[in-house]
Amino acid sequence: MKTLIVAVNSKFIHSSLAVYYLKSVCGEDVGDVKVLEYTINDQKDQVLASIYSENPQVVAFSCYIWNYEYIKDIIADLKALMPQIKILLGGPEVSYNSAEVLNEIDGADYIIAGEGEEVFPLLLKHISLAKKNEEFTDIKGLAFRKGGKVFFDNSYNMVSDLDSIPSPYSDEMINNLGPNRILYYESSRGCPFSCSYCISSTFEGVRYFNMDRVKDDILKFVDRKVKQIKFVDRTFNCNNKRAYEILEFVIQNAGDTNFHFEVAGDLFDEKMLNLLKKAPKGLIQFEIGIQTVNLQSLESISRKTDLNKLFYQVKRLIDLGNIHIHVDLIAGLPMENYDSFKNSFNSVYHLNSHQLQLGFLKLLKGSKIRNEARVFQYVYKKRHPTRF
């Protein structure tokens, strides 16, 4: 049995971490498993022809807000062209309303809700053994069709022991990056905070990969001269002791690789700032979410931020002169109006950070704020964006 795991990235410089995680957990007993990566800028007919030429029995798509409509179109044409294949969906855009998605997309056969590393190889084994869908009820968090109806137990998969997952950072993955693409990396999953616009707040707690594993991966990336490593930990420094150890290791083993971290600016302490002074210029960059300086807005989205400490520490980081500082704002938050947003923008602009990124609020599936749309009188597009 041949399985294709397909990623559709938003830009060429991006890479997909999820698809290589899934490949890493597949043993020889599930047959031939291959990863294909495209972007939403690729011609759909070319993508369709590329998938068809592989003659797969199973095609799995990783679904996000930016590629959902694109993937829907590919599925419709692919199922018409190859009606016998099985199509599997996963990812955050299908994990919170899996039954609804299966009813919407006739060509999709299965959806894995949540993290797929434990479920994906089990499902492939079931398919390879030609089991009937009636026998799939033992797979947690799996939506599928049964007797003409959609069956889903409304459960959500999470891997309790992250170190049980083999490393996705194979030579194949790194070689496919080429010289100019970003490699995404996670040293943890989850977030201790509960910002209502973020799907990381949909489950509690933070799980960590073993520190020795993280250090081994960092050395591999530096040795392979990967251009940029972007940590996708939702709040990298939520555990200051752990963050310090990783940053110290990065500084001690500095090479040509740039490391990007998403951090909470108000969690920095003196010990961390003294360490960062030692970093070679260009080695480290921080993305710091400020989002708004409106206290009512912060309260309405359950975001805990000490604004005075945040601005003080961001200024100190900028003054170090060796760390690239990227700050974020979100337009459209609850309790925010034009005057309030203007105040937020001006306050953040005058920090003189190296980059200010303005994002627009997205009511993501699974997020608390999407469920509160009526409370805050939000009107939003039901159709996903076709460009991101």
UniProtKB/TrEMBL annotation:
SMART domains: Elp3. It comes from the Bacteria. Residues 1-134 form the B12-binding domain. InterPro entries: BchE-like, Cobalamin-bd, Cobalamin-bd_sf, Elp3/MiaA/NifB-like_rSAM, Methyltransferase_Class_B, rSAM, rSAM_horseshoe, rSAM_sf. Residues 177-388 form the Radical SAM core domain. Keywords: Iron, Iron-sulfur, Metal-binding, S-adenosyl-L-methionine. This is Cobalamin B12-binding domain protein.
